[in-house]
Amino acid sequence: MNNYDVTIGVEVHIELKSKTKAFSSAANSFAAKPNSQVSPVDAGYPGAMPSLNQEVVVSGIKLAHTLNMKIDPLLRFDRKNYFYPDLPKGYQITQFYHPIGSNGNLQVTVADKPFLIEFERVHIEEDTAKQIHQGDLTYLDYNRAGVPLLELVTKPIFNNAAQVHAYIVALRRILIALDISDAKMNEGSLRCDLNISLKPQASETLGTKVEIKNLNSLNNITLAINDEIIRQSELLLANKQIEEETRRFDEKSNQTVLMRKKTSAVDYKYFTEPNIFPVQLEQKWIDDVISKLPMLPNEIADILKNKFSLNDSEINVLLDRRDLLLAFEVIVKENNLSKETVNYLLGPVLGYLNTQQINDLSVTKLNYQHLAELITMIKEQKVNDKQSQKILTTIFESDEHNPNELLKLWDVRVITDEKELSEIIIKLIQDNPQMVEEYFKNPFKANKFFIGQVMKQTKGQANPKIAQELVDKLIVEYKK
User: Fold this and answer.
1) Do 140 and 131 contact (CB within 8 A), yes or no?
2) Parallel, antiparallel, or unpaired for β 279-280 and 101-110?
3) Are residues 334 and 440 in the same domain?
4) Which residues lie closer than 8 Å to 72 by C-beta, 6 or more apart?
5) In the chain, how many domains are there?
6) Can you give the pLDDT at residue 263?
7) Same domain, yes or no, for 154 and 136?
8) pTM above the 0.90 mark?
9) Does one domain contain both 404 and 453?
10) Asn/Gln amidotransferase domain location, by residue (predicted)?
11) Which domain holds residue 380?
12) Tens digit of each residue's pLDDT (9 = 90 or more) over 209-223
């Protein structure tokens, strides 16, 4: 493999978060009942006329500007003609000749060194229907037909999987920060195609390009690149020819497998879309869109690090999860507890979401002010772990009561009074002399016994930290 130079280009399809589709008024949302979000335009009915979604154009301008691209103020669309079951009209509306953005760049860090990514273009287009294969049958879900996409194409400047991995991570965070896509690879809202070729180190001519389609995770991207480099290098070392073909990544074998060979270039017969007239965008309007851009990941990271003293690991999770980042911002304004808040969000809160298979906080009934109050109560030791977990589960499912109201309804409290706890512990010490002796031989076993008994007698309401300190103190005093 060291005898060859690797060249990789990346194409990313980004599904946008607009409320409606690119060229119709049908709803644009994930996981709806199949074929429940389809308009005559999406289904390709004769005479149905497309209407351009302004929000999609705004998203295109936001991404193009962020990636330092030249923005084309003349908005024009083209038809890409081909016949396939998932393309109801027999053509796709896209921007082949006139992309909304061109010639951009983005700097990322790879192995602690800067790496500059160069872009050819970003253009607006519509998605196809979704195919579901079951046995000998193929089902079509037209909900995805017409979903707005941005296709982002890099120049062939990558040389290894680490560079591509760093790029996709950085791009996801930009999309999340701009709030134009949820960028969830597992749901298909961020899909990646790779073009990989190898050439001898002395050669100035690029090798034969092989395309790998529809990669849907960072791990699969890395595995696919590494496997394809090995596959092509082994063929070249054996003096065999690399054939131009389209492949996919097989997750069972962790290898790329053949989809189809490219015997000739496909002629899509592009021509100007006649049903969408060109739109001249005013520079003032473009500037207004750009002026309203939110903070980008680097700016957010600086604030989280310098203002709130979060570490890189915590920052990375918040940059990857817009819902957790928004929750952090709101809660810290309420309780001014940045470290405690991020620990609780990335611990119990994220654990609950994962257990319940909930992808986003926004779909729950969680009231951020109630969560801020709970975190404060934990900090002040007004609730123990068991109580806080019960409160968390409850406020996830209903925002009717705040944590203090829940404790009153449940008639529970946390016992922090040392005098009250000492009386219980002294009685336990006096009644269990054998466990007092065990304390000096096997403190773990003895502590577990005494704390367990304290919790039993207080019905789980004792503060375990204070109880533990008192057990240690009172046993030593008893032995004196």
Assistant:
1) yes
2) unpaired
3) no
4) 98, 99, 100, 101, 102
5) 3
6) 66
7) yes
8) no
9) no
10) 326-475
11) 297-410
12) 999 999 999 999 999
| Distance between CA atoms of residues 354 and 350, nearest Å | 6
Mean pLDDT on 350-377: 94
Q: In this model, does residue 1 exceed pLDDT 60? A: no
Is the torsion defined by CA of 352, 356, 357, 359 positive or negative?
A: negative
**Domain match, 45 and 159 both:** yes
CA-CA distance, 292 to 294, in Å (whole number)?
Answer: 6
Strand intervals (E) in 127-203: 130-134, 137-141, 148-154, 190-200
Residues 86 and 231 in one domain: yes
Whether the pLDDT of residue 12 is over 90: the answer is yes
Q: Which of 65, 61, 51 is nearest to 21 (CA)?
A: 51
**CATH of residue 429:** 1.10.10.410
* pLDDT average, residue stretch 271-284: 96
- Where helices occur in 256-400 by DSSP H, the ranges are 283-291, 297-306, 312-320, 322-335, 338-344, 350-355, 368-379, 385-397
- Check if the beta carbon of residue 126 is closer than 8 Å to that of residue 21: yes
Residues 41 and 57 both lie in one domain: yes
Q: Are residues 255 and 302 in the same domain?
A: no
Q: Cα separation of 157 and 95, whole Å?
A: 23
